[in-house]
Amino acid sequence: MPAIHLARLRLHAAQLAQHFEQPDELVKALHELLDYYANRTHHAGRSGEPPPLILAYHVPRPVLRQVEAELVPLVHSDPDKAMALCDTLWKEANLEFRLITARLLGEIPPNSQDSILRRVEAWATTCNEDRLVTALAEMGLQRLREESPLVLLNQVEAWLDNEETVYIQLALRSIAPLISNPDFENIPGVFRLITPLARKALAMVEPDLLDVMNVLARRTPRETFYFLRQILMTSDDPRTARCVRQALKVLPIDLQSELRRAH
Prior knowledge:
This protein is mainly alpha-helical. The protein is about 70% helix and about 0% strand. The chain is built from 15 helices and no strands. Helix 13 (about 220-235) packs parallel to helix 15 (about 255-260).
């Protein structure tokens, strides 16, 4: 991997962006750019994260950020061409290509909400790559989350109605950044949606459910206290109790003590 010279990287990314309206040419240019900055000494698993299940160039994150910085303004100026570019980029079974796709998709205005949601669902549920599910939920839904949160919440409810694990994971990973936004006010709706899951505490989605509970505990500690207490009172599943104990750690000390006394 060559050293990253910022001026050269900016030039490479700017040249790449010239192909915005020719997706096939941009794909070729992006392969060349990523190959140039590829880390050929990368050892899978050393970072603590499991190796990707698809091909990856293992380029440093600043390389992807610079590519995205050149492409995002073009996405804003022509969302239709951006959507076509996203479709072409995603077809490449490559981690960096698909991470960039998620970022660009999240910059498309939410008046294309149906097209955005359709792609997020189709790609997340068939990619077999956990970090891409997260990227699509967090980055791919960014503008929809910020500008049409109720639309997203309705879609989350539909995903939660699906019993396949990946749909539930996608739903929960979409909820966490939604409720992190202080402008989002429908917290009762979120509690309602996750109540059935909290009572079951399914092992495959427990980490994602816990992430949501932790965000709720930081955002609305008193309401989360009542929610956790109700869950403990209505479920005798030991996995539920374990999940609640983990979420409990985020609550203020006085609420932790009160909940322990109540259970």
